[in-house]
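Q&A log
Question type: sequence-to-structure
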Amino acid sequence: MGRKQRRFAYARIIIFILLLAAIVGGGVLLVQKFTSPTFLVDKLQEAVREATGRTLHIGGRPSVSLFPRIAVVMRDVRLSNPPDMGKGDFAKVAKLEVEVEFWPLLQRELVVRKLHLDRPEIHLLVDKKGRNNWTFDQPGKGGGKTGKSAPDGLIRNIRLAPLVLRDGVVLFDDERSGARHLLRDLDMTVKLSSPASPLDMQGGVIWRKQRVKFALFVKAPARLSGKGSPVEVFLKTPGARVEYIGLAGFGKGLSLAGNIAASGESLRGLLHWLGAGLAPEGPGLGKFSLKGAVEAAGQVMTLKKLRMQLDGSNAQGSVRLDMSGKATAITAALGVDRLVTDTYLGPAAVAARVDKGAPKPGKSAPAVSGWSAAPIVPTLPANVRADVRVSLTELRHRRLKMGPGRARFVLKNGHFTALLERMTFYGGALSGTLALNTTAKKPLTTAEYEFHDVSARPFLTDLAGFDYLSGKLSGKVDVKTLGRSQREMVGNLTGLTNLAFRQGKVHGIDLVKLLELVQKGIVTGWQFNENATTDFVELVAKFMIVDGIAGVRQLTMKGPLLEVAGQGEIDLLRQRLDLSFRGGLVKRKDGKEKILLEIPVPLILKGPWHHPKIYPDIAGILKDPASALQKLQGLLRAMGAKKPAGKLDRAKDAAREKLKAKGEKLEERAKGKVRKELEKVLGDEEAAEAAEKAAKEMKKMLKGLFR
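Response status: OK
Response body:
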């Protein structure tokens, strides 16, 4: 090769090197341009604006690395609300880390492989027109349906990696209702590969000072603001677990249509946490579970085909919850197998009763509990209204049992009303109303009840430990009282009660036999006998109650062998009787004509109602001994008419001789016995003063009796 040719070859090599250098230099400049922070910020902002119509603000200068992916770290990132919802930000992020595929970006595709947000603040908003700010499509371009922007846009498609949020805050505002909810310490992962893709979210957050774990799947997020989308929701709090599967939307407020299941250890605690106005501690509303179909529109929720367990009771039916007003309104229609009111009225107070295994009165007094001072009237929430209709298999109140039947429970402005509709009650029927007003310092309770053909003995035993009357009981109660405890309520009780017993017995005493032995009873007193009974056809008792004292308006008993009428009072608070009876034995002439043999000695029934004592009214005898003697003689003559005359004469002669022989000794003995009986009936103060007179009158009566 000649010198000229060699020079030409060198020149071509130099030109090629220069061209290559120019191409490489231009490529480097091109790469630097496309990967510079300014270029990326500009294009990212343009892409967001094209895809969503929103403004993306990035404060400061992002840091960028190129390979193997474009990795960008941005700080103070803010994404605006949709342009038609005015000013304000949808989200703020303290630090945003993004990794984007390079080559797809050059092909007008945004493929995000990493998207991490530190300390985000997300403001979910529903404006007064019902529009939300979390639907990511550009108004008027349908981006939310296809996942693509307009054909002339820079970015044709978007594919997103899972969004990871750490230490975030979420604020939800509904401008239509004024509802606001704040969630803190949010950690979650959101999978939403494109605006049209399903949303899969899992994480945890602190709401109302409790940590809540959640999982949410939304099949079509863009439809949440319209007709709604199929969703699956799982929530777990320290006290409850909730699952929901169905449709959900926010077009006109929250709307739900699906199935719900929930369970937990404390329904009271859950309702308090949700802001329903219940105290966190209190009786009832404990362990629960429920399953059913749920429908919700705005702040009104309805549960249908509900199956629920609460505090050991099982129920099914429907419940409607309305939180749109100042007070939460609950309406329900339920069938319940068993309801125990003690669960909701505080600690069970033990009513006075006779222990079944204890000795009967007259031997040794059994252990008895008085009215409890423990509060049993709850403080009712003023911001909850309820109207619950219940078909009951069994209802228990303290020791009382009733059912099946129907009831209605109404709660409004601190007033509670329970209406019983012909409830089966101790073999009979019960209906009436119990009303409770807790707005005053001392709650007011009123009760109006009617009952028919009730088995008296088990009812009275369960009510007050009084097991000395049996038969069929019908009656009416109309009373009111003030107080929170049993003791206060019984002590303040006022009203009327009318009771009628039919075809029954008085247990523990044979009044007919005792009246036939009236002469002996005057001296020794009478005691209960657990095997003795007194039959009656009818027993009517009407009382007027004032401040816990039941005064007798009518007290009559008619039987085949006995008719008596009583007077006096019953101290309900102290559970004591102070009654006296007058009447007589029934004799029939030729089995047809009735003759009433009046007893000249009134009877006193006095003492604790679980073991009272019955005595002749010695004080009454002392007021008119002559009349008493005359009636007693007539009674004994009538009672002894069937006895041979000789036997009665011999009894008189023997008594006369005995009185003459004993003299002063008999007088002293009578005085001692009468004084002992007077102490039981009149008390120590009057006994000593009256004993001397009683002995003298007794001696005269006995002498006159046996003349």
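Response note: The chain has 14 helices and 34 strands.
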